[in-house]
TrEMBL record:
Homodimer; disulfide-linked. Homodimer formation occurs in the endoplasmic reticulum. It is a single-pass type II membrane protein. GO terms for molecular function: beta-D-galactosyl-(1->3)-N-acetyl-beta-D-galactosaminide alpha-2,3- sialyltransferase; beta-galactoside (CMP) alpha-2,3-sialyltransferase activity. Substrate binds at Q108, N150, N173, Y233, Y269, G273, G293, H302, H317. Disulfide bonds join C145-C284. This is CMP-N-acetylneuraminate-beta-galactosamide-alpha-2,3-sialyltransferase 1. The keyword Transcription regulation does not apply. It comes from Sander lucioperca (Pike-perch). The keyword DNA-binding does not apply. Its EC number is 2.4.3.2, 2.4.3.4. GO terms for biological process: lipid metabolic process; sialylation.
Length: 341
């Protein structure tokens, strides 16, 4: 507006000089040097104003990120489900409510009480960082995420370079990269897993524990140090290779929030893949999703192996509901969903 006003002022000034040539004026304003000086002043003012426009005249509602579109922008459909105040990760100072614990303990029939849970979590945070390592939002950056599922539709997709281009790359469970680089990429910054699906990690990847029982916290503490020798419903690794400084733990309250707000309590509880997807919405400004969806028989098959149990379907998880929500998020332009081939 400043620039436009100065342009009109300049035109008006010279229009007045030409319209009333006989009007009494000061000699300095009448001669050509005076006109040239005024013109130069106006041009200089316009240039300075233009250069300083973005830094000096920023709007009050400056975008919270440097992306073309930020997830936190006000949208009734999205904000009805998205709750930024829910902490995605546990920390040493976080106090889980007993109500949230009672919901969580039913997921896999946990027998331990709230006191045992808190003591076990406290011991874990003597071994791993007391607070999560997250990249905070900023108006000066655009945090991009790739969430890479394990669906068989990733075969021959050639999504690898696109996946590797993102800042944060989240994989889950035993998702392979070696031998499948062209389709799934090579980089991994975060891997979401639980004891029964755990794999060794390199020194730069965050281990993100998705806990479903108190034993999972105990396993992580011991698997990173002395070795775990307990038993679960399936074999678990006694020791795991991981950078202890990069360990993060999903918050049971966050898991409940995903089940209630995003899946409307459908199914017994969210899959690891869907938890990872909603986690990405909380961690990043732009989210791209790959490798989600069942095969033609309705099973969650994996791109690196042939499925043996053809009646597995999606287990205790609401696979159809999760898939429809991903499609809806894509339609609402809250993420980009690459469906594969």
């Amino acid at each position: 507006m400043i620039v436009v006003s100065l342009v009109y002022f300049t035109k008006y000034f010279f229009y007045r000089l030409e319209l009333f040539p006989n009007q009494k004026r000061h000699t300095a304003e009448m001669n050509s040097k005076g006109k040239a000086l005024i013109f130069l002043l106006c041009v200089t003012t316009i240039c300075v104003s233009w250069r300083g426009y973005t830094s000096c005249s920023l709007p009050q509602d400056k975008s919270p990120c440097a992306c073309e579109r930020c997830l936190s922008e006000d949208d009734p459909w999205f904000m009805k489900r998205f709750n930024k105040s829910v902490e995605p990760f546990l920390s040493a100072n976080y106090n889980l409510s007993e109500d949230a614990f009672n919901w969580w303990k039913r997921l896999q029939g946990e027998k331990g009480n709230f006191s045992t849970f808190r003591q076990t979590v406290d011991r874990l945070f003597l071994t791993v960082p007391p607070s999560p390592d997250v990249l905070e939002s900023s108006p000066d950056r655009c945090r991009t995420c790739a969430v890479v599922g394990n669906s068989g539709n990733l075969r021959r997709s050639h999504y690898g370079p696109l996946i590797d281009f993102q800042d944060v790359i989240i994989r889950m469970n035993a998702g392979h990269t070696e031998g499948y680089e062209a389709d799934v990429g090579t980089r991994t910054t975060h891997r979401v897993m639980y004891p029964e699906s755990s794999v060794d990690l390199d020194n730069t990847t965050h281990l993100v524990l998705a806990p479903f029982k108190i034993l999972d916290f105990e396993w992580l503490t011991k698997a990173l140090t002395t070795g775990f020798h307990g038993r679960s419903y399936a074999p678990v690794k006694s020791k795991i290779k991981s950078n202890m400084d990069l360990v993060m733990v999903l918050n049971p309250a966050f898991m409940r929030y995903v089940h209630v707000m995003w899946l409307e309590k459908k199914g017994k509880y969210p899959s690891t893949g869907f938890l990872a997807l909603i986690l990405a919405l909380h961690m990043c400004d732009e989210v791209s999703v790959f490798g989600y969806g069942a095969d033609s028989d309705g099973n969650w098959s994996h791109y690196w192996e042939e499925l043996m149990d053809k009646k597995l379907k999606t287990g205790a998880h609401p696979g159809d509901t999760e898939y429809r929500m991903i499609q809806e998020l894509d339609e609402q332009q809250k993420l980009r969903f690459y469906t594969g081939f």
